[in-house]
Structure formats: C-alpha cells, structure tokens
Write a structure and sequence with these properties.
The protein has 2 domains: 7-184 and 295-318, Vaccinia Virus protein VP39 (Rossmann fold), CATH 3.40.50.150; 207-289, no CATH class. It is an alpha/beta fold and 328 residues long. The protein has 9 helices and 11 strands. The protein starts with 6 loop residues before the first strand and ends with a helix. It has a 7-stranded mixed β-sheet, with helices on both faces. The radius of gyration is 21 Å and the shape is globular. Helices cover 33% and strands 16% of the residues.
Amino acid sequence: MRVGLSYSVASFFSGIGGLDLGLERAGFEVLFQCEAKPFCRDILKRHWPDLPLDHDIRKLDETDIPEADIWAAGFPCQDLSLARMGKRSGLRGSQSGLFHDFISLVGDRSPRGIILENVHGLLSSHGGRDFSIVLKALDELGYGVAWRVLNSKDFGVPQQRRRVYIVALHRDARGAAEVLFEPQCGDWNSPKGRSNGEKSPSVFQTILGDPSQGPLVKSIAHCIYAESARHTGTDWSRNYVWYPDGRVRRFTPNEVERVQGFPEDWTLPENFDARQADRIDSLRYHAVGNAVTPPVAEWVGRRLRNVLEAQDRNLLRTTLNGTAVAAG
C-alpha cells in the first residue's frame, strides 16, 4: 500500500529530457532513461548524472528497467511527420516502428500508466490505421486510453506546436480521460471570425520588438522541426529574427530552447569546445526540434498525479474502513 503518495517514471526515447523535465516539475521522480542518440545522451547525463541510461530499446531487457508507476515515451516521429518529404512509412518505418519494441516491454511489465507523445500526423498515418494499431495494442494489454492534440502555444510557450498526447491507465479508461480533458470550458481556441464573415487575424501577424532598432520577431513561432539545424528548409524560411535595416538571422540555439520551453543552455554540452561551435549548434537545433515541450508535459503530469492520488486515497480509505469493520 502506497503511503507517501510519491510516483516514479521510466523514460523511453528520452531525447533531451523534455517529458522527464515536465514530469519532474509535476512531482514525479525519474528513475530510468533510454535514448539512442549520443548527443542527447550527453545532455541527459549532464542533467540526470546518476540515472541508469540505456541506449538501445531493441536490446533492452525488461529486468533492467526499475519498477516505475509511469512509463513515458515520445517515440520517434520521423516516419509519421507531416513535415517529412515524400511518402510516410508510419509504424512500418525503422524509426517510428520502434513503438513495437516499446509496447513489447509494456506487455512484459504492465506499468500502472503510460504517457505517449508524437506528432499529430500519427492520427492520419496510413489513413488512421497506424493510430488504430497503437490503440489496439494498449487495449489488448488491458489499458484504458484517452488521447488529445495539445498545442504548446496554449501553455505559455511562444510556438505553434501541435502534438498528440496519449494517456493509458491499466484497467481505467475513465481515469485516463480525466487526465486529458477538463470538465470546464477553456479559452484555448482562437477568436471566431466576425459576424460579417471576416477571418480572425493570424496568430503569426503580431510582431514583438523595437520597431526602430530591432530585433523583431513574430509573437508566436512556427513549429520548430528537427530539420531546423544548418539547413535552408521550412523552419529557416518561417522562423527568423529581423532588423529595420534589413538584416535577417536565424534563431540562436538558446532562442530555440526558449521557444520550446526549456531553460537557457539546456542543450549546451558540459565540455563545450568552441572550435566545434557550428557542429554543436546543429546538434542542438536538431535535438530541440525533436523534443517534447516541458510545460505541456508538466500540465499532463500534474493532472495525472491528481488522478493517481485520488485513486490511492480512495483505496486507502476503503481499506481502513474495511479493517475497522472487521475489527468491530
């Protein structure tokens, strides 16, 4: 019987720890991480130096995973993303298909709850069949499931970033729904168009900064993709800083971190070599573009913690009442 109402997390596809950081802020203790990319592992080790850190979920033995209440996984999105050029491989792909390795471990251990995060392209991949595979896999393992598309801009982060969050609780669909859906109405939606049919102004039309000297930026950034490194791609053409004299530049790594809701210098390696600044900047851009937004993860974590605490208190109350009746 849990007395202290403390809850723990095992993290998979940890990246630079966006889910982990958000869940820690929500009161969870991270016990384990698994991440394949060497640069991301270096960042994880810098922030969680004492945690066991595995590097290959395909070879991970379930007995090496500490007992944890919640398993959290932002599994790879490369084969699901709508930003991907060309045909999407979906869960058949070599990266996003690692979901199957994760769900196999879930079947071996049956954690109390699961949090999954991915691009909202998961919902439409292969006409929705890939998302159906995810739901069916969780259902067959006995999990009640809820899902919702959350946008980072609604959580105090200046970025338009839609991601699907899936919460699964063992034998508890109602609890999973309570985590992701509020009974009260929110004000997250953009204002409706005027009665004469005019469209609401774009969220990207508001400009911040000094109009006489700069720098100037859009108040809400477009989604930061992993491909935003030293490339001339979609991100660089949409997200930039400009000055009244005509100068234009890309976001710095620290600016991208802030746009994602991370503390400044979160992705700066512990042993930074200035001679490799360009290469490290590219790695930082890529890692942040792949990351989970910590404030969104924190919101999900706080609501999940509330549900777990309510369940455990009810269980404790029922047990104590039963003991009192038996004693009487």
